[in-house]
Amino acid sequence: MTLSTRSKTLFDGFSKLNRRERLSRLVEMGALSPDDVTFLNMSSGLNPDLAENFIENVMGYFQLPLGVAAHFHIDGRNYAIPMAVEETSIIAAVSKMAKWVRKHGTITTEIKGSGTIGQLQLSRVASPLQFEQTLLRNKDFLIHSANQDIAAGLVRRGGGVRDIEVRKIKRPDLETMIVCHVHVETCDAMGANIVTQVCEFLKTPIYDLTGEMADIAIISNLPDCKLTQATICIPAVDPVLAEGLVEASLFAECDPYRAATHNKGVLNGIDPVLIATGNDWRAVEAAVHAYAARSGQYRPITRWVMEGKSLVGTFEAPLPVGIVGGVTRLHPTAKMCLKMLNIKHADELSRIAAAVGLVQNLGALTALSTVGLTEGHMRLHISNLTIEAGAKGAEIPLVKKQLEEILSLRKRISASHAIEVLKELRERTRTSAPAAALVNHHNTRE
Ligand code: MEV
């Protein structure tokens, strides 16, 4: 049974399954193979020698929890989306919201533009105008040389250097700095290495042509030549809910202090997908934040408005990702996660990440504009508090149950509640008092 035909039913009750059942469901969906399940069951056994190929001074691996976002239906296709993240409630919130959107509306995505940008800086040139004219006159030669000598592999895959642009930037001393933008189509790779190599290569022919030597050659992490968009449309939405969402969106639009938190919530959805698939999430973070600040004021990367009776949410930002290159095919977990998504192109991964970010944002704004974050978040955080307090074995369910009751009663809970509950549980166990007495004891206090 393929994911695309049956995931609606196979995701039913997903969050209530235990891990073994959840993995069986994912096998049934076709998202995982039985070998993947074996791998996941022993995934702390990743080979440290492999890590020596990725980084330096290796000690081992840092393990993040790997979960799956359920119920996603994007551009008419079902996805089980891997997310590597440590923060409680992100996956629960995004899955719950994806289920709601699936029932009441649609998620569509799009890529606008293409390529990525490399930069060559020439801090001072004798004549900026002459430099520009010479470079533009020889642009085709420079593009051809780079494609032949350094980007031949990329050209074979349908990409390569496409254009060179000359920018003149005013320096603080009012002289002109030249910055050349080299536009490169990197196909399914994020392309940081090849773009930087292309720019470094171009230094010499540019010097030969102009007599000017570039200082710095590097990829730009603001590739705004290619934007990823996602749209959620909810027709016939509850007007009270919608008003709260539109006002929450406006808050972020008007106030950079709120926009930073708003965008952090969007990235709560995006980063875990990037990490799970072995992508450079720092590059995406840089792109998103730089794009968010492009007007001179830091703004949200999503927006929620009413169009007639429909609620429409949009995401737009550069999300430069790859499905080849880097560790995407080398890290066994990233490789498995990419296989699980069953995608053919990097653009599809970028569109999925945008959709997850937008749904995550919808979840956060819905909670903030209705019941608030604390109760739902804290309910899911109870396990962490219980373990942090030092509960072991049979103590764990008792402490968790009692923390849940305290939360229902007082609408808040903290690490000190967990410590107190555990301390009292242990004291009462020592004096053989029944655990149930503890619950009553706490519920009647304060
Ligand atoms: C918490 O990790 C993220 C939120 O603060 C995002 C938001 O406020 O929109 C909930």
Provide an overview of this structure:
This protein has 446 residues and is α+β, with helices and mostly antiparallel strands. It folds into three domains: 66-113 and 227-370, Alpha-Beta Complex (3-hydroxy-3-methylglutaryl-coenzyme A Reductase, Chain A, domain 2), CATH 3.90.770.10; 116-219, Hydroxymethylglutaryl-CoA reductase, class I/II, NAD/NADP-binding domain (Alpha-Beta Plaits, 2-Layer Sandwich), CATH 3.30.70; 374-445. The protein is 52% helix and 18% strand. The chain is built from 18 helices and ten strands. Strands 3-8-10-9 form a four-stranded antiparallel β-sheet. A four-stranded antiparallel β-sheet has the order 5-6-4-7. It has a two-stranded antiparallel ribbon with strand order 1-2. Strand 9 and strand 10 (310-317) form a beta hairpin. Helix 5 packs across helix 14 (346-369) and helix 10 packs across helix 11 (256-276). The chain starts with a helix and ends with a helix. Residues 435-446 have low confidence and may be disordered. Bound molecules: (R)-mevalonate. (R)-mevalonate binds at residues 87, 261-262, 264-265, 268, 364, 368, 373.
